[in-house]
Amino acid sequence: MLGASKRRTRTAFLSALGLAVTSTGLWLGLAGTSHAATGVPTPDHVVVVVLENHAYNQVIGSSSAPYINSLATGGANLTDSYAETHPSQPNYYAMFSGSTQGITDDSCVTPGFSSAPNLASELLAAGKTWASYNESLPAQGATDCSSGDYAQKHNPWFGFSNVPTDSAYTFDQFPADYSTLPQVSYVVPNLCSDMHDCSVATGDTWLQNNLGAYASWAKDHNSLLVITFDEDNRLSGNKIPTVFYGQQVTPGSSYSTTVNHYNLLRTLEDMYGLSHAGEAANSSDITGIWTG
Predict the structure, then answer these.
(1) Helix, strand, or coil here: 275?
(2) Edge-to-edge order in the sheet of strand 45-51
(3) Which among 84, 158, 174, 257 is least surrounded, fewest beta carbons within 10 Å?
(4) Structural domains for the chain
């Protein structure tokens, strides 16, 4: 049997390593988790919605976007969030893989042209779940360049050979039972619903009608809704709206640290203990908005 002083010494040593002594042995505590290491939570589900081509001041504070502003008020408003470049497509690759992958325009890409690490490949390699839900996509896994109001340029997952094409669903396949959602998913509205071809009000209404119920559910089910934009209107230094809403987001919080798509990617990766793709490795997490 160990003496009392030796037991205290052993316990202090193990505690310093993030271990706890229990009646049955040793337990690896939270010091070894991504939450403790990074200051970000691990939601059961994250849904990221990407909207189009509007600057921060065109949406936040605008009477044309009452729903998005209600989420900003009830969640976290990132007041200094930026896209990387112009036009649209390079920004989607940046937020998904930490790199524009050499893309400089909106031309349709060859499916699977890159095998670079990305959010989906990292999740799948770690045994996590992933999907995208794409409005007006002709069919699950379809790699068409365009179809009606659908545009492949807003769907970077098709550019990667390490992301199964069948993980790209139509938005009609978005689950009614939110508990069956993958751990991380992207939602990409079509060219009207995302404010690209239609108004801010149209996109705001689409978001409320199609994801308002998920947002409400997320508040009570350890889940998260992220709304961001690919780029601004080319008139505001590429400053874009970004809003976080969910159970572990402090209501009414305002995050003034300068961030971009790489910070968003890094934060999502660290929520699930993943490696860091591209420039996410050189970026910091979005912190200071979480309740925990």
Answers:
(1) coil
(2) 168-170, 130-134, 184-188, 45-51, 223-229, 242-246, 76-78, 253-255
(3) 257
(4) 1-32 (no CATH), 35-282 (3.40.720.10)
Side-chain half-sphere exposure of 236, counting CA atoms within 13 A: 18
β 45-51/239-240 pair status: unpaired
The DSSP output letter for 30 is: G
Tokens of residue 234, six digits = 């080319």
Kindly report the pTM of this predicted structure.
0.88
| Residues in Cβ contact with 153 at an 8 Å cutoff, skipping those fewer than 6 apart | 88, 89, 92, 106, 107, 108
pLDDT, one tens digit per residue, over 200-226 is 999 999 999 999 999 999 999 999 999
From the list 68, 4, 23, 36, the residue with the least C-alpha distance to 225 is 68
Beta strands in the chain (DSSP E): 19-22, 25-28, 45-51, 76-78, 81-82, 130-134, 146-147, 150-151, 168-170, 184-188, 223-229, 239-240, 242-246, 253-255, 259-260
Cis, bond preceding 43 (omega within 30 deg of 0): no
Share of the chain above pLDDT 70, in %: 87
Residue 222, Ramachandran bin (φ over 0: left; ψ between -120 and 50: alpha; else beta): left
The two most distant CA atoms of the chain are separated, in Å, by: 77
pLDDT digit string, tens, across residues 3-15: 444 333 333 333 3
Pairwise CA distance, residues 120 & 253, whole Å: 29
CA dist., res. 198 & res. 205, Å (int): 11
pLDDT of 12 reads 39
Q: Please give the mean pLDDT across all residues of the chain.
A: 90
- Over residues 28-57, mean pLDDT: 74
Which structure tokens are listed for 212? 């308002």
CA dihedral over 102, 136, 187, 201, signed as positive or negative: positive
Could you tell me the sign of the dihedral formed by the alpha carbons of 105, 107, 110, 112, in that order? positive
Q: How many angstroms separate the CA atoms of 228 and 250, rounded?
A: 18
